[in-house]
Every structure is written in C-alpha cells, then in structure tokens.
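Lab manual, section 2.4: Encoding a predicted structure.

Procedure: take the sequence of the chain (272 residues), apply the prediction step described in section 2.3, and record the output as structure tokens. A sample record is shown.
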Amino acid sequence: MKKVFFLLLLAVVGSTQAQERYTEKNKGKFFLFWGGNRGYYTNSDITFRGDDYQFTINDVEAVDRPKGWHIDYINPLRMTIPQTNFRLGYYVGDNWTISAGVDHMKYVMVQDQTVKINGRVNAGTAHDGVYNNVDKVLTEDFLTFEHTDGLNYVLVEGARVDDISSLFGIRNTDKIQINLTEGLGFGVLYPKTNTKILNRERYDEFHVAGVGMNAKAGLHVALFKHLMLVGELRGGYINMYDVRTTMSKSDRAHHDFFFFETMLALGWIFRL
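Recorded output:
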C-alpha cells in the first residue's frame, strides 16, 4: 500500500512539474537586448576654459541625431553611427533584475543659435573680448559642440518586473507574456566629444567626462518563452564635469542637464 501511495505521489509531482510553464519562474535567467533610442535634453549653461579664454554660454539648446530605420543598427562596422542601446541582465529573483550596458545617445548643440555669454577670450581671434551677459551667435568659426560618438551612458540598473498578462486575458504566458518593469540606475559618461572651439584641433578620443543617474519604466513582451520585445522610457540627470575639448589638456568644458529617452529593442531570455 505504501509503495502504491509513493508511486501516486511521484506521478502527481511529475505532472505538476510538467505543467509548470517556463515563464512562471524567472530567478536564474539571463537576458540581453539591442535596440535604438531617441534623446531629449533640457537647455544647459556650458562653461569653457583654457589658457587664453574662459566663458559661459547660457541656456544652450541641444538635440539628438537620429538615424531612423537603417541597416547600420545591425552592421558591426557602423553600429556607433545610429543611437543604440545594449543590455545584459540577470534575474536575481523572480521579480528582480540587475543589468549593465550602454546607452549610446547623441547630443548636438544647435548651431547658429543666439545665447547670452559671460567671460573673456584673448586668443588672437575675431572673437576676442570681454563679454558681460551679451548676445552671441554660435557660429562655426567660434564654437561647435557635440557628443556624437556619442553621449555614451555606461550604466548599471536594478529593476522590478511584474507579469501583467492577466490584465489582457492572456492565459498561456509561454506563448506571450506582458511584463511591467520599473527601476533605477546610475553610471558614468564616456563620450568622444566632437568640439571645435576657436578653430582649434579637436580632442578625438574617448574620455570619462561625468556621471549620471536615471529612473525608468516600460514593458517587456516575451514571445514563445525566449524572444523579448522591449519598450522603455528613461529619464535622469547628467553632470559632465570634465569634458575634453581640444588636444590641449588645459582646454575643458563642463555642463549638466536633465535628459529623457525613449527606447525600443529586441532581446532574448535564456538559462545557462
């Protein structure tokens, strides 16, 4: 009798395990995704300093530089041209993830805008003078300023993930599962800044230039257990306190601003 009971118990347990869906338990899974973004930035005050100049331009407008739908997003030799996102993450619990990656955004100062300027220039150029809150047109022979190779936000994020499939009447989450995610992140800014100030040779190298922090929310849609469609909104604060501008080590810039980012990506969920 005991033997029969034991066999029945094994059958029940085996049946339960067989019915457990892949998407019911997440702890121990890995995920990665690759996609694109659009970036939006608040106006900022930018200070430039060197041996023969120091000035601040106020309320400077900047935009991103989107590529649109393009083969460059998957061309290994041209992946830095569009605005891209990469993540590799791990489920530390069924509802909690930690991830690391890079948001390759682009920040471009709007050329020929008129701003207020304060400071001095004594560099033997047509722009020499003392400026006291006067209007200045940002012409190319005076200043170009962009993080287009790019505004690289290297970050770590922690997030919560909750299955909300039942809200949409979805029963078999191994076919389609809709997850709500929200989280916080922080990281460093590692741009290659393309700046030409007073027609001097630009500093064309990657450089740790500042720090950032962010909050995010979004939807992760899992298809057939493993394929993942990712849509996220991310907002935060960036402080670039040490931007290299020319080949001279004394030529630097600093500014801080808030950013907002929209992201769409394609990913994969798996266990090792």
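Check your result against the sample. The longest helix spans residues 2-19.
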